[in-house]
């Protein structure tokens, strides 16, 4: 068998270390190398050994290429429509504000200095502004610089291309020099904004340095604009008058990049043009036609719509839909390997053919149609609330209703109460036949799966195991063909969960996604799944996605579990409970002031323990996570059954101890836990079902605080029980003076491992 090398020779040198180099060089050859070797007459045992060694190497390389960093990229291009510089700046800043949850330690933009052709103008063509800190620091510094340099904010551009970036630092500390756009040279011939990680940047940097380039930043990104300039200059040298197109430059750059990325390129050699490309990291294009005839909708259904030039239009590129929806709902989700070229009001898409072994080879033009965003602008505004987290906590009755809409059936011609999950109906038989269901997720998504585990076990009778995505990968834990692996992720982008998905998929498991983001990597790469439809969640601490995830998993349990006579009453009670859930959540939200008062009492505390068990072990973990994440207070969720095996040592009259003791099969055990804590003079806060105050906390226990919540079917109780803890975390954060929506050091979706 002949092994063809499927990538051009790596003329840009070697990777970081010997093993990485070997892996990178042979990435594309591994499978064919493997089958060639196995043709030799070697003992079967050695063949198996070799085969698993190669599979392992391949997996490691793929996992390496998944590492991405969290950032937001945005671009705005106006074509044939006059826009003042101040307007362009506002669009770019607003775009960044919408993406700020993705990273907020530094930011930058690039706009044009002059509307005249840079080739004939003596003015410096592209202006770059970069600033450490959040978006507002950038905005302030830009206007300061504008004032100092007398830059005309009223200057009009009929065509203009601006790019923007908000960063979460991984390579190099937050500082202007490490912020994006990164530049090819002091004249900013090529500028790039990047979300992702370039894994071979050191090798590329070494080669570029040998070719005379000097580097200003510690980022992996800086190699990209410099490589673009190198490619451009070489082409110019070799071809004289023949010009190389912007997309040819970018194709050549992409061929040499390893890792994951979403990139937007701007260059003064190609004024008013932008190029976007991606491999791994998310990116979408928004299209706003400003021509009346075109906006009546007819153009939208035309697959060639994107190739129509001439009409005035505005084009947007963004890491996610949040930054686009206020301008247009017509979008195109850019796919891996695609290079999108915006030029003269024309959108052309070229796609790298993916070779058998993952390499990038020939390019071919592709036709794509736009789709409509199912999202409203109100979803991404704070409305009357002060913070996104507050808004998202309070909108849970509505988000839960949306999650269940069309999926719960009761009454009508068919009297039965039942569940219909459109995304799973063709796979239910396979899931029912699985030997095991494995829930995989990180952070809040993991906790949601933990909350749903008991009901899934009960109704399906299938063993359910729990995996934190990073731990599964660290252990390379066993996943079998007979497993159903369920990936739970609000963003659908989390790097650990994505890598675990790749791992489970390679091991032959049926992969099911539970995500909030349509078109996300997890939604696309799973065999099937359910969108939780909770609406955009912007606060970094997940709240409404958590409750919607639990509800989807409870519906999953109902869908998988057989409708037998013995469990009919239980199923119907759960379905009735689901119908009633938004009302119950509305009721528990009335505890807002009570939780604020409690927060006032806890404001100066160092630590908070939260005890739960059974259905509410997850509530304890999630409540503690919320307090830790946003209020920056140490907090631990503890399985109450483990209390005697260590945590009891911490209990005294000072440490606030929160116990979840709502009515379910574990209630009497929780009563006993409360007694034991009280006996050690524990400073108790007890959450119980309405009417149970006296049973959990006798009147003579003066220091004990009780929070009564509405009671409902045990498996749905975690949805109600988490709300007071979310409110507590929120108020504690505000009272302690911390940033609620952008907690220190955290980002909403963690796309780096
Ligand atoms: C779908 C439509 C919804 C429409 C409804 C009624 C979408 C996104 N949803 O909802 O607008 O009102 O039909 O017919 O078009 N999937 C995965 N992995 C995931 C999540 C989903 O593979 O992580 C797949 C599902 O298997 C399914 C598709 O994505 O094929 C849509 O899933 P979902 O939105 O949950 O399906 P419906 O509820 O049927
Ligand atoms: C991050 C977020 O840590 O990722 C958490 O800050 C979130 O809120 C976790 O729970 C997992 O994210 P996702 O998108 O996979 O649910």
UniProtKB/TrEMBL annotation:
<keyword id="KW-0808">Transferase</keyword>
<dbReference type="InterPro" id="IPR035466">
    <property type="entry name" value="GlmS/AgaS_SIS"/>
</dbReference>
<dbReference type="InterPro" id="IPR046348">
    <property type="entry name" value="SIS_dom_sf"/>
</dbReference>
<comment type="pathway">
    <text>Nucleotide-sugar biosynthesis; UDP-N-acetyl-alpha-D-glucosamine biosynthesis; alpha-D-glucosamine 6-phosphate from D-fructose 6-phosphate: step 1/1.</text>
</comment>
<dbReference type="GO" id="GO:0006487">
    <property type="term" value="P:protein N-linked glycosylation"/>
</dbReference>
<feature type="domain" description="Glutamine amidotransferase type-2">
    <location>
        <begin position="71"/>
        <end position="345"/>
    </location>
</feature>
<keyword id="KW-0315">Glutamine amidotransferase</keyword>
<dbReference type="InterPro" id="IPR017932">
    <property type="entry name" value="GATase_2_dom"/>
</dbReference>
<protein>
    <recommendedName>
        <fullName>glutamine--fructose-6-phosphate transaminase (isomerizing)</fullName>
        <ecNumber>2.6.1.16</ecNumber>
    </recommendedName>
</protein>
<dbReference type="InterPro" id="IPR029055">
    <property type="entry name" value="Ntn_hydrolases_N"/>
</dbReference>
<feature type="domain" description="SIS">
    <location>
        <begin position="427"/>
        <end position="566"/>
    </location>
</feature>
<dbReference type="Pfam" id="PF13522">
    <property type="entry name" value="GATase_6"/>
</dbReference>
<dbReference type="Pfam" id="PF01380">
    <property type="entry name" value="SIS"/>
</dbReference>
<dbReference type="GO" id="GO:0006047">
    <property type="term" value="P:UDP-N-acetylglucosamine metabolic process"/>
</dbReference>
<feature type="domain" description="SIS">
    <location>
        <begin position="598"/>
        <end position="743"/>
    </location>
</feature>
<dbReference type="GO" id="GO:0097367">
    <property type="term" value="F:carbohydrate derivative binding"/>
</dbReference>
<keyword id="KW-0677">Repeat</keyword>
<dbReference type="GO" id="GO:0004360">
    <property type="term" value="F:glutamine-fructose-6-phosphate transaminase (isomerizing) activity"/>
</dbReference>
<keyword id="KW-0032">Aminotransferase</keyword>
<dbReference type="GO" id="GO:0006002">
    <property type="term" value="P:fructose 6-phosphate metabolic process"/>
</dbReference>
<dbReference type="InterPro" id="IPR035490">
    <property type="entry name" value="GlmS/FrlB_SIS"/>
</dbReference>
<dbReference type="InterPro" id="IPR047084">
    <property type="entry name" value="GFAT_N"/>
</dbReference>
<dbReference type="InterPro" id="IPR001347">
    <property type="entry name" value="SIS_dom"/>
</dbReference>
